[in-house]
Amino acid sequence: MPISARTKVVGLLGYPVAHSFSPPMHNAAFKALGLDWVYLAFSVEPRWLPAAVAGIKALGFMGVNVTIPYKESILPLLDEIDPLAELIGAVNTVVVKEGKLVGYNTDASGFWRSLKEEGVDPKGRQALILGAGGAARAVAFTLLKQGCSSLYLANRTYHRAQELAKTLEKAGSIPVKAFPLEESSLASILPEVDLIINTTSVGMESKGGELPLEARKLETRHIVYDLVYNPPRTKLLELASSRGCRTISGRSMLLYQGAEAFTLWTGREAPLEVMKEVLDSLL
Ligand code: ATR
């Protein structure tokens, strides 16, 4: 459908956003349902975030997705926060409802749906989460709710991991320990856990870098999940595969968090097969 004066606009706010597959995924979904909507990606420098958020309303957008590094910092800029997003402390989807910006978190259900699809039950498992940002919050609260028996958080900025650990311990009744993201701390945690989830942007196409994880500490019982989906085989997943671990890429979480956002914006069920095909063709 050609873009016209009536086309409804949604988009992505993040920094950077060039790596994102959300635009092709959502645009294919709009097309499949014959919706006169368009999804655009906006690379917003931190100093422009408040202006960009005001612009969602000012320009009459229907909503946005929010990604690194704004999933937490956007909260005070919104009019209302859905209770789940409030509990998690992170928003990845904003819907404009009667002129108000309402924040939601679809990362949590997207992550949970992807785990179920993979047949991974967190109940009774011990998990290590790398990162302590917005995506880590969604993952951590999901694992808490689904019965993980203990959580380890490792983050470059140690105090963020400490703060998140405190919040999680208050919300649940399992031990949550915080560590700096360093080789020595990961080496001591790995023998304790069976599920390892990278929620940092390390390994992303546009960013690169490597996690301080020693290959020989990985064992076949470890399930390694990288929320990064571009590239589909990150260095972390390559490393884990080479050690015989089961690996999960961020593709299905991207799909399911996107599908729920699509429904929040349009009120329509997302055409999952179409969205999946787009991701398959890109990855
Ligand atoms: P969001 O809220 O969208 O998840 P974020 O809060 O910036 O974005 O979170 C990104 C995560 O990736 C954080 O855990 C961040 O670590 P810091 O808290 O130290 O910033 C992590 N991260 C980003 N770049 C990193 C890098 N080069 N090395 C290690 N961790 C990194």
UniProtKB/TrEMBL annotation:
A molecular function (GO) held by this record is: shikimate 3-dehydrogenase (NAD+) activity
- The residues that hold NADP(+) are 131-135, 155-160, 227, 250
Q: State the InterPro entries in the record.
A: Aminoacid_DH-like_N_sf, NAD(P)-bd_dom_sf, SDH_C, Shikimate_DH, Shikimate_DH-bd_N, Shikimate_DH_fam, Shikm_DH/Glu-tRNA_Rdtase
- Indicate the enzyme's highest-level EC class: oxidoreductase
Pathway given for this chain reads: Aromatic compound metabolism; 3,4-dihydroxybenzoate biosynthesis; 3-dehydroquinate from D-quinate (NAD(+) route); Metabolic intermediate biosynthesis; chorismate biosynthesis; chorismate from D-erythrose 4-phosphate and phosphoenolpyruvate: step 4/7
Q: What is its EC number?
A: 1.1.1.25
Q: Which Pfam families match?
A: SDH_C, Shikimate_DH, Shikimate_dh_N
Q: Where is the Quinate/shikimate 5-dehydrogenase/glutamyl-tRNA reductase domain?
A: 122-201
Q: What Gene Ontology terms for biological process does this UniProt record contain?
A: amino acid biosynthetic process; aromatic amino acid family biosynthetic process; chorismate biosynthetic process; shikimate metabolic process
What sequence ranges are listed for the domain Shikimate dehydrogenase substrate binding N-terminal?
12-94
Outline the extent of the SDH C-terminal domain.
Answer: 250-279
Q: Which UniProt keywords apply?
A: Amino-acid biosynthesis, Aromatic amino acid biosynthesis, NADP, Oxidoreductase
Reaction catalysed by this enzyme: L-quinate + NAD(+) = 3-dehydroquinate + NADH + H(+); shikimate + NADP(+) = 3-dehydroshikimate + NADPH + H(+); shikimate + NAD(+) = 3-dehydroshikimate + NADH + H(+)
Quaternary structure, from the entry:
Homodimer.
The family classification in the record reads: Belongs to the shikimate dehydrogenase family.
Annotated function: Involved in the biosynthesis of the chorismate, which leads to the biosynthesis of aromatic amino acids. Catalyzes the reversible NADPH linked reduction of 3-dehydroshikimate (DHSA) to yield shikimate (SA).
- List the protein's name: Shikimate dehydrogenase (NADP(+))
Species in which this protein is naturally found: Thermanaeromonas toyohensis ToBE
